[in-house]
Amino acid sequence: MQFSDQDGSGAGMGPATAGVGRHWAVVGLQWGDEGKGKLVDRLAGRFDAVVRYNGGANAGHSVVVGGVRYALHLVPSGILAPGVLAVVGNGVVVDPERLIEEMDGLSARGVDVSALVLSDRAHVVLPYHKAEDALREELLTAAPVDEKSPPKHAVSAIGTTRRGIGPAYADKVQRATAVRVGDLLRPELLRSKLDLICSMKNAIFRGLRPGEPDPFNAGEIADRMIGFGERLRPVIKDTTYLLHDLDRAGKTLLFEGANATMLDVDHGTFPYVTSSNASSLGIGPGSGLPPQKVGTIIGVVKAYSTRVGGGPMPTELFDETAHRIRERGREYGTTTGRPRRVGWIDLVALKYAAMVSGVTEIGLTLLDVLAGFDELKLCVAYETPDGRTDRFLPDGFDLAEVRPVYESMAGFGDEITGVRSFEDLPGAARRYVEAIEAFVGVPVRTIGVGPDRVQTIEREAGVPAGGRA
Ligand code: IMP
Fold this sequence. Notes:
Radius of gyration: 22 Å
Strand content: 15-25%
Oligomer: single chain
Bound molecules: inosinic acid
């Protein structure tokens, strides 16, 4: 079978990087839940600060340390590394109540949260955002389908996490109806803003839910938010200056992407995406640090595909294989508990995501989940209404029309959770890894073989991608 440099450019086929530049980033290349948290947690101790730049409590990073599972939503995974600053940048939308809950939960388990810093320019997720998110989803679910257009052309619910993410980002772009973290420390301004905003939001809800009482009480919301502001006051900072100061002082930064490249609002499978730039492209606007400062971008990739919520997923499976992968991989949402949709690895999508996010290396995760299958399938092209292509179709409606073209490889029978070096993996597992890096044109540097921090294979630098037998 032919897993080679698809476009013949040779791009990315050189020696594996050992990581270049002082600042690195870790981003998901699929639809989220690739295991970024574990990788960030492993790397965090080598950096001075870990920085979140997008998303909000829709993200769910679970990290297992010493057998204890930590589910983090807003706090950067770096918090688990002692002495490392954990920065929530301006591009994040913050639900203060959840953030405080998460901080308290970590403290109760003995994690030091004093290294947390929160941007005064991050936007606040308010109760009405969550209500709007739920209402929109309900209305979309109930939207009548036009009989004349096929269902794949009908708009349907996004399947959001209902954490108010979309409405909070929408208000950010609307400007006057937005509340930033810094506003929590300015009670008078906050009250006057919320009076106006709540009257507007109540009017909208009255229109859509006639006869129901006004859902939002500006005074109550303001009181609670002012309380949260007081609690968070010590951690609220200008993180743009902070990051530039750290950069000038020669410190190292690790950017932790939330959600994933395929969910990027501009480059993902729109409209079935989240509302931020969840690829590495969000780093600049979401942190204030120019993109050229980041030298190494690690794309995190599951050994198969999963997706939560609506939208197309060309390699989705509905059979016993899906069930087995879901159970072995514990594929249930960290944030919502929803069973994740499961499918074979989609190399067409992956190559596109690696291109958009500019990844310099791949962190492959959950390879152990695929042990025991006789055959593994990899999607290498799409059949579209206009013929076969190896280019991704990022438009959600176009993508819904493609059929995957697979190539098959032999599976590996043995459990690999105890393996710690690439050479000790079964030959079929090594060939699977090599097929991925050859197709995508980016070296696979780490391979996850289990949930714990230590269950990771690191491949040494200088291994040519796809170059091992
Ligand atoms: P939202 O971000 O809650 O608006 O959800 C938009 C879409 O992105 C939905 O399909 C969610 O399931 C998905 N999504 C958002 N964040 C994550 C994540 O961290 N992992 C997986 N899916 C996510």
